[in-house]
């Protein structure tokens, strides 16, 4: 209040305030682009390209309504007053913008107030803060930090720092994206294809015999079948190719007791077999196969 009062002490009481004076000077420079045509009885039409507005100097009105809303003239009314060779201040500005109203606004002073220790005590119950209630949602664990505090206490931000490659020692990229190291082409191999490739490599290393199932490999109906090797001709893919197959014949179980199968070499090498502990486990006394 005191500062504003001291600011307006040197102003003339019947002059326009400096801020409004500055705006009027800007409008006087812009009114050069407007053309004014007289319509009679102090009414004028201002034109600029395809725009036109009606200004009534007697009623202090303009069809753009800025003169009525702001309280001081618009660019169209300034052009009209310049056509009449009249300055846009004085009676064409609302008295609210005069220095006399500014002085009346800030002529009073605000009295000071003592602190809480000087307030008189009363017999009324002092007000208490409202009871805290549980808000919906999960409660926050971290406190709300001030804007001046660091987001992380023991880490330093790497924003704006250039990374360097560990292979070519150049800056701007990492070793994972380095283009100077030749890399094998990426192949879209599925998990199932990887398993099939592993099984084929194990079969090649184990040297197992491929068994071709057909009508010639059906088990014989004799009581005891002996192991013999015979050559059989099998047609593959409708092409006449001779394939020698070693037919493996095993003995027929005539005792009625279930026979134990020998574990496949592929299962042993892939480590797919599991030992089951408990009743019936043969870990303590393994059986020897011939």
From TrEMBL:
Transmembrane segments: none annotated. Residues 53-85 form the SWIM-type domain. Pfam families: SWIM (PF04434). GO terms for molecular function: zinc ion binding. Keywords: Metal-binding, Zinc, Zinc-finger. The keyword Zinc-finger applies. This is SWIM-type domain-containing protein. It comes from Lactuca virosa.
